[in-house]
Amino acid sequence: MKELFGMLPSGEQAYLYTITNGRITAVISDFGATIVKLFVPDRNGNLADVVLGFDDPNEYKKSGTFFGAAVGRNCGRVDKARYTMNGNEYAMTPNDNVVNNLHSGPDYYKDRLWSVESHTESSIRLKLLSPHGDQGFPGNAEIHITYSIQNPGTLSICYDAISDRDTVFNFTNHSYFNLCGHDKPEKAMSQVLSMPARVFTVENAESVPTGEMRSVEGTPMDFRIPKPIGRDINADYEPMKPQGGYDHNFEVFTDPCAILSDPESGRTMAVSTDLPGIQFYAGNYLEGDMGKGGVSYCHRGGICLETQYYPDAINRPEWAQPFFKAGQHYHSETKYIFG
Question: Which fold has domain 2-338?
Answer without folding.
Answer: Beta-galactosidase; Chain A, domain 5 (2.70.98)
